[in-house]
Amino acid sequence: MSPEIISLIGILLGLAFFMALACYGWNIILLGIGASVIVAIFGGLNVVEALTGAYSAGFVSFWQKSSISSACFLCHKFS
User: Fold this and answer.
1) What confidence tens digit (pLDDT) does each residue in 33-68 have?
2) For 1-79, where are the alpha helices, taking DSSP H only?
3) Least packed by Cβ within 10 Å: which of 31, 33, 59, 70?
4) How far is C-alpha 20 from the geometric centre of its chain's CA atoms?
């Protein structure tokens, strides 16, 4: 099988993994990391490099934005 097909299968499996467990109420942050690991393995990437490269930069950006919005929400909720 060609590497492109195997990568596509990894993307679909990662998405299915994420969606299935998110429906059961699992933490989406952890599911995102797990789905990224699945995609990296099927894509033939080094898992550590895949998680510490572009994924971690996007995660940090997301976390900063969500932390600020969560803090604002809590301030308005309890005031």
Assistant:
1) 899 899 999 999 888 888 887 667 777 777 777 766
2) 3-23, 28-42, 47-50, 56-78
3) 70
4) 14
Name all contacts of 42-50 with Cβ < 8 Å and 24+ positions apart: 42/6, 42/7, 42/9, 42/10, 42/11, 42/13, 42/14, 43/6, 43/7, 43/10, 44/3, 44/6, 44/7
What is the pLDDT at residue 12? 96
What percent of the chain stands above pLDDT 70?
80
- Six-digit token pair at 78? 């309890």
Q: According to the model, what pLDDT value does residue 69 have?
A: 55
Contact status, residue 40 vs residue 56, Cβ threshold 8 Å:
no
Q: Is 47 exposed, middle or buried (0-12, 13-18, 19+ CB in 10 A)?
A: middle
